[in-house]
Amino acid sequence: MLPLLLVALGAAGALLLVGAVSPWWWCAAAPLLALAALGARDLTQRCHSVLRNYPLLGRLRFLMEAVRPERRQYFVENDVDGRPYDRNVRSLVYQRAKGADAEEPFGTERDVYADGYEFLQPSMRPVEAPDEPPVVRVGGPDCTQPYDMSLLNVSAMSFGALSSNAILALNRGAALGGFAHDTGEGGLSDHHLRGGGDLIWEIGTGYFGCRTAEGDFEEREFADKAALPEVRCVSLKLSQGAKPGFGGVLPGAKVNAEIARVRGVPEGETVVSPPYHRAFSTPRELVRFIARLRELSGGKPTGFKLCVGSRRQFLAVCKAMLAEGVTPDFIVVDGSEGGTGAAPLEFADNIGTPLTEGLITVHNALVGTGLRDRVRIGASGKVATGSDIVKRLLQGADYTNAARAMMFAVGCVQAQRCHTNTCPVGVTTQDPRRVRALDVPDKTERVRRYHRATVHGASLIMASMGVRHPRELTPHLLLRRVGPTTVRSYAELYEWLPSGVLLSEPPPSWAADWTAADPDSF
Questions:
Q1: From the centroid of its chain, how far is CA 396?
Q2: Where in the chain is the domain with CATH 3.20.20.70?
Q3: Would you place residue 60 in the very low, low, confident or very high pLDDT band (cuts 50, 70, 90)?
Q4: How far is residue 23 from each of residues 9, 15, 337, 406, measured CA to CA in Å?
Q5: pLDDT in tens, 14-30
Q6: Most buried in the list 152, 346, 416, 503, measured by CB within 10 Å?
Q7: Is the pTM of this model over 0.85?
Q8: Would you identify the CATH topology of the domain 136-248+268-504?
Q9: Rounded CA gap, 319 and 327, in Å?
Q10: What does the alpha-carbon distance between residue 493 and residue 482 come to, in Å, rounded to a whole number?
């Protein structure tokens, strides 16, 4: 605001000098008036959050893009699981969110002969893409209110970490586009509920929104909120990809009166979630707690989210499912490549299983124990494009969730100031002036357009592969270059267990973990 104020004062001063000194002062007054008018327009327009918060000064960003367009700034870096990751994804999301043509001619800029390059296998007999994208029915035998999940949904991002306007735009976009919005572990706010979108209510270790004064789980409050028609599923967060084994942190500067009320915590104090749940301490108790949450919610789909660590521990959970005769309706696998603004760098870079290996581990464990048909698997971790969706479905997922890409759709520019409460575009701040810059109707449409274009892209890719439905995808259709002259499919690169094999004759590669897995101990 300061540059605009200075320009306006300069224009007023120049106008006074025109009348008092000389008409030649119009040479200064005219451009200053034009700049003041441009700044006023920046303040009132609704398309660019940067300009609303930084009139005039924010135009430097667009000037730099004009000199070197962002979509041409192409870099490739190694992701945590060795796959190439394209930083140009943000530009692709922006284009789709704005409804612009996301196609770019003249071929790929990637080195297709580099080790680790992955590609999907097209068919010589492609099929027509469906008019409506497929959905996934979530709800096992103990679920009485199953839910049809989109192939792409809004991943967990809490109110508090995100602003009220960002939450509302995401939720309204989900309502318009027919997909689900995960609340994150920060509780159910009015901004989640008044948008009309389908909610996945996430319960973390802090039990925000359903906690006692001592920080324990409160059944009655949970049951009352889980009964709301907007809540379609309940997700118990065990761990998060970017910081597995580390509790969430919300700086005190962000904990205003509203957030304190939603979370049930003191205003102005930093909120630190415990690294573990108090409601259970063994795999068997976890499974029973899932069943209790489903009962309290009136039979709505209930599951859990985790970043995979020890395979033995996950097999212990599978043994507990078998022993108790209880299964979650879904499991969300969060890859270690997932992002957050509240994780120590060493955690983000070094701890947790990448999504590819995590997905395949969970899929194999459920198949090997004969439970796969009862449990749907979600995948989250740098999912942003249609090809990302198809790859994750090939690797064992039934649907995907996106956080980072959805933040791009509502205007995130990766300023990396999420923890400071000074987000320049109003996405990750509780400062009312900065939040105002995020125009909800405009960003709602961008979220809807991004989702529609991305899921449509996944449908087109599957059609080009000769696949009419995700269940027809197999690991043979995804290939990776592993040497200068060697390409292997995922069917060859990874072990895929037959149904029920762990119950009859575990293969040598799984036998030790299966034997050691204890349903009564993590």
A1: 18
A2: 136-248+268-504
A3: low
A4: 18, 9, 63, 53
A5: 778 777 778 887 878 78
A6: 152
A7: yes
A8: TIM Barrel (3.20.20)
A9: 10
A10: 10
